[in-house]
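Render this sequence as a predicted structure.
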Amino acid sequence: MSYVESLRQSFRPARITTLFIGESTPRAGTFFYEENSKLFYAMQKAFCGQEDFLEDFKSKGFYLDDLASEPINNLASKGRAQLRRNSITSLSDRLKIYRPDAIVIVMRAIKPMVLKAMREAGLSCDPHCTPFPTFGNQARFNEAMTEIIPNLPFIKSGTKGNKK
């Protein structure tokens, strides 16, 4: 298992209530669970997170996984699209294990692949979808998350609840 996947696994909650799905880890070497990526900073801001944001994220049953297991953000569109399609079965297999109550897709362009993986995994929840918080989409991401967050299932004091 790679360092990135080991680090990701270390933040996996025992029960995943809400699964966030990104495209892939960035090629640049940044990573959400290293607290140094654009997605980390945007999520921390959306959740009004403090220094212990990742531990709080995990304690609520929240987890971030990616469609593709390798960085694809620097590929040309044809290769990127092919790797997205090739990643559907792997994501479906993980969804069968995770069985989240809710899904938030963090990039509109991957929604069709995530929906297909969800169907293959037998999940019937309606996923939320946000733009990825870069290239001028930060405000749209924040707006979407402001609407989504109050509706996410989460674990509170050892029980499942909904944030009000």
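Summary. The chain has one domain: 3-162. The beta strands are 18-22, 62-66, 102-106, 128-130, 153-156, 159-162.
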